[in-house]
Amino acid sequence: MIAIFAIPAGLTYTLGRVTGNQKHGWAVFSAMAILFLAGFFTTYYFEARGNPIFNQYGVTQAASETNGLEQAGGNMEGKEVRFGIMNSSLWATITTDASCGAVNAMHDSFTPLGGMIPLVNIMLGRLFSAASARECMACW
Q1: pTM for the whole thing?
Q2: Could you report the per-residue pLDDT of 73-91, keeping only the tens digit for each?
Q3: Which residues, including other chains, have CB under 8 Å from residue 118's CB and lie 6 or more apart?
Q4: DSSP string covering the chain, please?
Q5: For residue 50, which of 61, 76, 127, 132 is within the disulfide window of CB 3.0 to 4.6 Å?
Q6: Rounded to whole angstroms, how far apart are CA atoms 57 and 41?
Q7: Does residue 129 contact residue 8 with C-beta atoms inside 8 Å?
């Protein structure tokens, strides 16, 4: 996961060097990092809460363990059990920010607000990618 962000993060430094203003490169990096972190925490928060409609039907989505059986809790639909909610949320946010196309959870199985972030990232296109940093340098 770190490798997906390594080149784009390095290119923000290069952007500062090319423009002759390191603060500009740090400003671009900060904006990209803030949007990524806000997206990840939003996705994780809503995925960990699960589907609120299930509560009215008595379906529990809390993490539990009974007789050796474990229930992860939250919205596990469309996610690999071995990765869980946190890693699926992190991977979905990273890969849609970088537009690399890799998935480990079905984006259409996320909760409405949890799935909003990957969809917004897809619509924004290349928020945290080498191509977006190169395009920013091309403006100068």
Answers
A1: 0.80
A2: 777 788 877 888 888 889 9
A3: 43, 92, 93, 96, 107, 110
A4: -HHHHHHHHHHHHHHHHHHT-HHHHHHHHHHHHHHHHHHHHHHHHHHHH--GGGGGGT---S-EEETTEEE--S--TTB-TTTHHHHHHHHHHHHHHHT----SB-GGGS-HHHHHHHHHHHHH--TTSHHHHHHHHHT-
A5: 61
A6: 28
A7: yes
